[in-house]
Amino acid sequence: MPLNEPQVRSDGLQVEEHRQFQEAFWSAERLAWLGFASVLVLVILGLSGSGGIFSKQATRFQEGTAEFPRFSRWEAPEAITALLSAREQGPKVTISREFFRSFRVETIHPAPVSAEAGDHGMTYHFHSVPGQDVLLTLHVRPYRPGIASYRVGINREPVQDVRTIVWP
Amino acid sequence: MESVARGAAIYFILLIVLRLSGRRTVAQMTTFDFVLLLIIAETTQQALLGEDFSITNATVLILTLFGLDILLSYVKRSMPKVALLLDGTPTVLIAEGKIDTHALKRARVDLEEVLAAAREQHGLARLDQIRFAILEADGGISIVPQ
Fold first, then answer.
1. Is the per-residue pLDDT at A2 higher than 60?
2. What domain range is B24 assigned to?
3. For the segment A29-77, what is each residue's pLDDT rounded down to a tens digit?
4. Do A25 and B106 make contact, defined as CB atoms within 8 angstroms?
5. A29 to chain B: which residues are within 8 Å by CB?
6. Inter-chain touch B20–A33, beta carbons under 8 Å
7. What domains appear along chain A, each with residue ranges and CATH number?
8. Do B6 and B58 share a structural domain?
9. Is the Cβ pair B95, A11 closer than 8 Å?
10. How many CB pairs under 8 A join A and B?
11. Residue A91, class by beta-carbon neighbours within 10 Å (0-12 exposed, 13-18 middle, 19+ buried)?
């Protein structure tokens, strides 16, 4: 008998069926479908970024609040928003260097009056009308997958740690 | 480097998802499946290329995908269990005229599909004219008449 020739069954059909394997595989298939459904539920909840209740994290500062992505996607546009309390000298936002190792800032709205690089990272200075809060939007794009840990500070407050998971 | 990683990741993700979605999905090309295929092709194309539309990137990706295909064909030849896992195995749906309802249900095949295959392959009119019906590893149905 040549090698790998399927055996002839008692009913005369020459086929290698591997029914035991197929039964196990059918069960694995159904488990995988449950897995597909679970992944989709997690995606709807926002665990893959790009929308969903868990995709963003809000951070409170004494002089404002900011919303950062908790989950983000590699090379997908993302927005960081912040509401900065009105301040005579105009609000300042400091973002640590680690942020710029994972994210590319594409646009900032409103445009900062000045941006200066220092030991703590990049500090953006904004103009504000007295008594009026500043709604800030940073359009960013992650260019490296992985976990991005960075620090953010508003005005002279101590900086707060933020972590964003960037999916490949 | 990134192109090779992208190509390999998409190749294996597609392989796993298509395999686990069941072989009928691959074999039965309905209008819906055709639309699905077009959408998958468009989606994977963007994930494969990223923002690099250069000929170099396209060449690297083509070489990666063909390389993986050739590599897997050698792995399958030397390791039959891997071949079984990746390609699947035939399933006998009707043996000596007796219908295996359990296999039909698990493989998500209707008797209508078996009859359609019987008509197309042998011009058979009835179920009792079928001796064997086999769901092949590629998702097609083979008919052996009585």
1. no
2. 2-87
3. 999 999 999 999 999 999 998 888 999 999 988 888 999 999 999 989 9
4. no
5. 20-22
6. yes
7. 56-167 (2.60.40.1510)
8. yes
9. yes
10. 44
11. buried
